[in-house]
Amino acid sequence: NHSVFWTVLSPNGGGEPKGDLSDLIKDNFGSFDQMKAELTAASVGIQGSGWGWLGWNPVSGRLRV
User: Which stretches are transmembrane (predicted)?
Assistant: First the structure.
């Protein structure tokens, strides 16, 4: 988790995804901003230290927060 965290904070990390991931986010959440809002809400709701994740559910074929 920390390796991903520090990569996102790098000068070239983060930003809005492109390509297939961008398409999946739009299909599953409507927009990148809506996905960020749902991920933020889920992450803020974690008591204590923890991580919010965007993952792929292979059974449903959808992204999930």
Answer: none
